[in-house]
Amino acid sequence: MKFADLGLSDELLRAVTEAGYTEPTPIQAAAIPQVQMMRDLIAIAQTGTGKTASFVLPMIDILANGRARARMPRSLILEPTRELAAQVAENFEKYGKYHKLSMALLIGGVQMGDQVKALEKGVDVLIATPGRLMDLFQRGKILLTGCDLLVIDEADRMLDMGFIPDIEEICTKLPKQRQTLLFSATMPPPIKKLADKFLDNPKSVEVARPASTNLDITQRLVKVDERRKRDVLNRILDKDEGMTTIIFCNRKTTVRDLAKSLKRDRFRAGEIHGDMDQSSRIAELERFKAGEINILVASDVAARGLDVKGVSHVINYDTPWHPDDYVHRIGRTGRAGAKGDAYTFVTDRDAEAIDNVQKLIGVKIGWADDFSSKSAAAEAEEADAEKPRPARKKAAPSERERNEKSARETKPKVDSKPTKAKARKADPEPESDADGEPGWNGPVPGFLGFGFGS
Ligand code: AMP
C-alpha cells in the first residue's frame, strides 16, 4: 500500500515524502481510514509502530477545514508525559508544515503564560497532559465544548500514572457528539471500561505487539547477584564501544547513583528521571540524540515512548516491577527495522517479576551465557579483598581495571535488598508527571504554544 492510496491531501503526501516514508506502517494502514470516516477507534499499538502519525496525519486533513475560536480548541490529544506531548507536537510540526493549523502544548514544568496566550488566540490542536489541562480548566481559561475530536494516547500508561479519573472528568467536559480515538499498548480491564463508557461503537484495530514479536530485538536475561550488577553492566558496556544504550532502573535514586558512577568511570553517560526539571530533561535528551553521550540512564516514566533513533541496546538494570514496562522499555530499540539487543538483569528476588513479563509477552526469554554474575576477576578480587594490595601502577585504566574499580566503588552503595513495598515508599514510583512544578526557565522550543505551518 502507498500513502497516496489512503486519500490524504497532496500537502500531507508531500510532508510524508519529505519525512522519508515510503509506505504506511500497518497501524497507519489500519487506523487512518477509520479516522477519516469519523469512526471512534480503539487501537492496540505501542510506540515504535508509527502510531503517532496514524492519528496526526488524518487529523491534519480533518482540521484543515474550519477555523479555531478563542479559548475553544477544536481537538484535544491527551498524553501521559510531557516528553510524549512534546513529541506529538513535533509530529504535528513535521507533517503539518504545508498546512496553516495552530497548536498549543499544555504541559507541566513550563510557564503557563505563553500557553494561555496561544489558547486565547484559538487553536486547532491542543496537546496536553491531564494535570495541566485540568488546572487550566479549573481556572476558567479553557472551554472544551468546541472540541469534537479527542485522542487518548498511551491509555495504559495513563492508568499506571493514576490519570484515569482526570480523563473521565475531561471526557465529560467535551461535547457528547465527538470522535474519540484511544491508543493503548495493552488493554487492561480499567481501560476497557473507559472505552465502553466514552467511545461510541468503536472500530478496533490491533497491530502485533512489536516488543514481543519484533524479531529485530534480541532479548536476553542476565542472571546477576544484586551486588554484582555494576560489574556485569561494565562487561556489557565494554563489549562494544559503539553502543547507544538506554539503561532502565526501577527507582530514581538508582538512576541518579548509576549515572554518577558511570560518569566517574568515564563513560559518556547521562540521566533522565522525573525529579529533573523539564529543561534538564530536554537538554539531556538532546545530548543523547546528538550523540554527545551514548548512555542514558532512565526511569520508566521519563523515558516512556521516547523516540530516539539508533538505540542499539536496552539494559534493564532492574527487572521491571510491571510487566508492561518491560514491553515499553525494550521497544526503545529495534525501531524502524534496525536491530537491537535487550538485556534484563535478573536477581533471585526477580523470579516472579520476570515470570510475569514472560507471561505477558508470551515468550520464554533465553539466558545470556556470556555474562556470568561473577567474573573470575571479581571472584578473585572478592577473595582478595581483605589482603593488603601492592600499589597499582599509574597507567590509563584497562577495561579490567575499570571493572574492578567500579565493582569496588559500587559495593558499599548497594541497597540492602529492600522489599518492593519498602522500595516504593523510599522513592515512590510511578513518578508523577502531574503538573505544578516550578516554571521552566530554559530555552522554549519553537513548537511550544504557537502556530505552525507555512
Ligand atoms: P511512533 O510509533 O509514532 O512513536 O513512531 C515511531 C517512529 O516511526 C518515528 O520515528 C516515526 O518518525 C517513524 N515512522 C512513522 N511512520 C513511518 C512510516 N510510514 N515509515 C517509516 N517510519 C515511520
Fold topology:
Elements: H1 10-18, H2 26-36, E1 41-44, H3 51-64, E2 75-78, H4 82-95, E3 103-106, H5 112-121, E4 125-128, H6 130-138, E5 149-152, H7 155-160, H8 164-173, E6 179-184, H9 189-198, E7 203-206, H10 210-213, E8 217-223, H11 229-239, E9 245-248, H12 252-264, E10 269-272, H13 278-289, E11 295-298, H14 300-303, E12 313-316, H15 323-330, E13 340-346, H16 351-361, E14 366-367, H17 376-384, H18 399-410, H19 420-426
Parallel strand pairs: 1-6, 1-7, 2-4, 2-5, 3-4, 5-6, 8-13, 8-14, 9-11, 9-12, 10-11, 12-13
Helix pairs in contact: 2-3, 3-4, 11-18, 15-16
The site of adenosine monophosphate has 13 residues, from α3.
Question: Can you put this structure into words, describing what you see?
Answer:
With 454 residues, this protein is an alpha/beta fold. It folds into two domains: 3-206, Rossmann fold (3-Layer(aba) Sandwich); 217-376, Rossmann fold. It has helices spanning 10-18, 26-36, 51-64, 82-95, 112-121, 130-138, 155-160, 164-173, 189-198, 210-213, 229-239, 252-264, 278-289, 300-303, 323-330, 351-361, 376-384, 399-410, 420-426, and strands at 41-44, 75-78, 103-106, 125-128, 149-152, 179-184, 203-206, 217-223, 245-248, 269-272, 295-298, 313-316, 340-346, 366-367. The chain has a seven-stranded parallel beta sheet with strand order 3-4-2-5-6-1-7, with helices on both faces. The protein has a seven-stranded parallel beta sheet with strand order 10-11-9-12-13-8-14, sandwiched between helices. Helix 2 (26-36) packs parallel to helix 3 (51-64) and helix 11 (229-239) packs antiparallel against helix 18. The protein is globular, with a radius of gyration of 23 Å. The protein starts with 9 loop residues before the first helix and ends in a 28-residue tail after the last helix.
